[in-house]
Specification:
The radius of gyration is 15 Å and the shape is globular. The chain is α+β, with helices and mostly antiparallel strands. A nine-stranded antiparallel sheet has the order 1-2-7-9-8-4-5-3-6. The longest helix is centred in the C-terminal third of the chain and has 13 residues. 36% of the residues are buried.
């Protein structure tokens, strides 16, 4: 769960982002169930593949020694997104997967990009398949990226089990950083939560 913003080196990528607590697919890949502005919308998501760097962590660890923050720093400082072949788009994707239990247990965090095919994986990176299924999509308010992502995760954690997004599967969740997150002082981020 990143807790500080990072700036991308000029010219290295179109995104000026993010480290925040704890990528949009084309509209053709999504079927949406309407929701009010205050609750999540539920979508049927197609499967996709992400290539990126991975860390194993817990929410408790992130509060004192952010492995996710270090992953973001490495991604930006080493311009790792540019080394990923066959990128599907210019968005950055952060995948939460391999949950040991729930929000309090260990999970794997994969930070990278969606790809159209996997032919060659850069050294030190991993491949993760995001399963097709039902996802509740929580869209942050616009504001400083650290604040809006933390606030959105708190909203997710506080969602009742019978509300959209409340019955979490704890298989795969992901954050999408698109053109709305280019300005880390006025960012909007989507968090997709796998549900039962």
């Amino acid at each position: 769960m990143p807790n500080r913003a990072l700036r991308v080196r000029e010219g290295s990528t179109p995104i000026l982002l993010v480290c925040a607590l704890l990528a949009c697919l084309p509209a053709a890949n999504r079927q949406t169930t309407p929701a009010s502005e205050t609750e999540a919308k539920v979508e049927q998501q197609d499967a996709f593949t992400v290539v990126g760097i991975a860390v194993r962590t817990t929410n408790a660890n992130e509060a004192t020694d952010s492995r996710i923050g270090k992953a973001w720093a490495r991604l930006m400082q080493e311009n790792l997104l540019a080394t990923i072949p066959n990128r599907a788009d210019h968005r950055t994707v952060a995948v939460y997967t391999d949950y040991a239990s729930d929000k309090d247990g260990e999970y794997t965090y994969v930070l990278g990009a969606r790809v159209t095919k996997v032919e060659q994986v850069p050294a030190g990176m991993t491949v993760k398949q995001v399963a097709a299924g039902r996802y509740a999509v929580f869209t942050s308010e616009r504001g400083p990226v650290q604040q809006v992502v933390v606030a959105t995760w708190r909203r997710i954690w506080g969602t009742p089990k019978d509300a959209p997004g409340g019955d979490r599967a704890y298989k795969t969740d992901f954050e999408l950083y698109d053109q709305r997150a280019q300005d880390p002082a006025a960012a909007v981020v989507e968090i997709h939560i796998g549900i039962r």
